[in-house]
Design brief:
- Keywords: Aminotransferase, Pyridoxal phosphate, Transferase.
- By secondary structure, this protein is of the alpha/beta class.
- The chain folds into two domains: 134 residues, Alpha-Beta Complex (Aspartate Aminotransferase, domain 1); 245 residues, Aspartate Aminotransferase, domain 2 (3-Layer(aba) Sandwich), CATH 3.40.640.10.
- Helix content is 40%, strand content 17%.
- It has 14 helices and 15 strands.
- An eight-stranded mixed sheet has the order 2-10-9-8-7-3-4-6, with helices on both faces. It has a five-stranded mixed sheet with strand order 5-11-12-15-14. Strands 1-13 form a two-stranded parallel ribbon.
- Helix 2 packs antiparallel against helix 10 and helix 4 runs parallel beside helix 5.
- The chain is globular and about 55 Å long.
- It starts with 11 loop residues before the first helix and ends with a helix.
- The structure holds 4'-deoxy-4'-aminopyridoxal-5'-phosphate (PMP) and glutamine (GLN).
- The site of 4'-deoxy-4'-aminopyridoxal-5'-phosphate has 14 residues, from helix 4.
- Glutamine (GLN) binds next to loops.
Length: 387
Amino acid sequence: LAARLQGFGTTVFAEMSALAVATGSVNLGQGFPDTPGPAEVLDVARAAIGTPLDQYPPGPGLPVLREAVSAHVQRFRGLAYDADTEVLVTAGATEALAGAMLGLLDPGDEVVVLEPLYDSYAAGVAMAGGVVVPVPLRPPPAPPGEVSTAPWTLDPAELRAAITPRTKLVLLNTPHNPTGKVLDRAELELVADVVREHDLLAVTDEVYEHLVFAGAEHVSLAQLPGMRERTLVVGSGGKTFSTTGWKVGWVCGPAELVACVRTAKQFLTYVNAGPFQPAVAAGLGLPDAYFAGIAAELEGKRDRLVTGLAAAGLPVVSPQATYFATVRVDGDALAFCRELPHRVGVVAVPSSVFYTPQHADLGRDLVRFAFCKRDEVLDEAVRRLTA
Ligand code: PMP
Ligand code: GLN
């Protein structure tokens, strides 16, 4: 294995999903829904297969999808992006993020990232020769058997202290995986201040933008004054349309920055997901009620799972958004998650793997459970955990 990929053996998602299959466990590990997406989206994909849409789409993505991405970001964030020059379709958010790192970083450039950090960030930065500088989010206290609804916190001093003369960009993720935190206005203003003051770039991963629960509101960093021109906004159809296997993502930003990602993308995948692109375009055009509906449905699942986990005696932090709830366990989270399928037949993901070695202590006992599953699956998991 190349030096730059040392330590990136197998992703925890692959390990835990394989363990779920091998042990016949209820899989609350990898975040993917177990019900199909909306018929309006699926039908378009079905109709596209067997047509010329099966062949290479244009490099930047099909115009119908780029226009739909542009209209969607205008509708929900009030931001205007030119569909031809300021929108790029990618193979999921994963490629958008890796492409942004490859297109923007020089060796040794530092990337400030909230920690815990989604696992592809560290690998994406490393493949580009960059260096991750983590800024920890801290969980609220959660007594055993209780559900905490307080948000995870970000210390402004720690964010400011992370900036050095080598800092190139801030890689933000809100709503945040694995914590489920939604950055509030004050936190976004803080990030924006730091980015502007130090003349940095920002990349913001907003794949959970529509999975936000009552009491929280998603705002894009690009909506803050002076930020649109220095920010790449990354999105994906995977979560919003329950089609995580389609890998249709996108990036919006000023033309010069999008061009950097496009240069990298050309030689990573060139193009992707021909027949799925018009389907995701149809999804992005669904009425507001669709987007509100998926959040409301998921909120019920969140409550079902966190109540169940607390009843099983675990200290639970209820998320403001996303697919994921966090619990604190006795001892090491990775060992706990490797044993849990054998002990009770449930798979979860150790949030400890989303921490850098220097902050291993902060995450060593944190475990993430996904609730994007049918109610009976959640109930069965809770039954097994309680037994
Ligand atoms: N970013 C975050 C925070 C995620 O949780 C995920 C995957 N669930 C991705 C990016 C990857 O998205 P995609 O499947 O569109 O590549
Ligand atoms: N993003 C999903 C999660 O966090 C799954 C990602 C993956 O399997 N790479 O669980």
